[in-house]
Amino acid sequence: MKVLKKIGNILLNLLIGIVVILLVLAFYNYIQINVLKNKYTNYFGYTFFEIQTGSMEPLIQVDDYVFVKITDNIDVDDIVSYYTDNSVVTHRVVKIEDGLIYTKGDNNNAIDEPVNKNQVIGKVTYIGADYGKYMNIVTEPRVFISFFVTVFLFNIALSIGKKEVKKNEIEKIQE
Predict the structure, then answer these.
(1) 57 lies in the same domain as 105
(2) pLDDT tens, 69-115?
(3) Is the whole-model pTM more than 0.90?
(4) Cα–Cα distance between 114 and 130 in angstroms, integer?
(5) Is the dihedral of CA 50, 53, 58, 63 positive or negative?
(6) Domain limits for position 25
(7) Is residue 91 a contact partner of residue 56, using CB atoms and an 8 Å limit?
(8) Contacts of 149 (CB under 8 A, 6+ apart)
(9) Could you please report the per-residue DSSP string of 44-97?
(10) 34, 86 in Cβ contact below 8 A?
C-alpha cells in the first residue's frame, strides 16, 4: 500500500510540474504576442506553427506542427517559414537570387512569389505529426477542466491517506 501511495505522489507531483510548466509557457506566449506585439513567440531561438493547408504534403500534413529555428542562414532545399501579408507560410526554398528567396510547396505546381530575407522567420527543424489534433483535445475546455478536477481530487485523496497513516502511527506510539 505504501508503494502505491509513493507512486501516486510521484505521479501527482509530475502532473503538477507539467501543468505549472505549461502555464508558464502559456503566460510567456501571451506576453510575447499580446503585450509585446510580436508576431510569434521566441522560445530560446525556436518557435512553432500549426500547418493549416496541404501545400507541403506528403511530408507535412494539415494539423502537424513545425518547429522552426529562428535564423537567416537559409539554403536551397531548406523548408522555411516566412511572413506574407498576415499569414505564415511554410514551404521549401527552390532558389535564392539577388536577396530574394523563391519557395514552393511540395504539393504545389507553381513557385511562390519571391520574399525578402527579412520576411523569413527561420527553417524547419522538426515536424510534429498530428500535434494540432492533440492540442485541440488538450485545450478543449471540458478536457482541461476535467484534468484539473482529477488532479485536485487525487491530491485530496492522497493527503487524506497521509493523515490517516500519521494518525495510526501516533496511536501506536501512544500505546
Answers:
(1) yes
(2) 999 899 999 999 999 888 899 999 999 999 899 999 999 999 999 99
(3) no
(4) 29
(5) positive
(6) 2-36+139-166
(7) yes
(8) none
(9) TTEEEEE--SSTTTTTS-TT-EEEEEE-S---TT-EEEEEETTEEEEEEEEEEE
(10) no
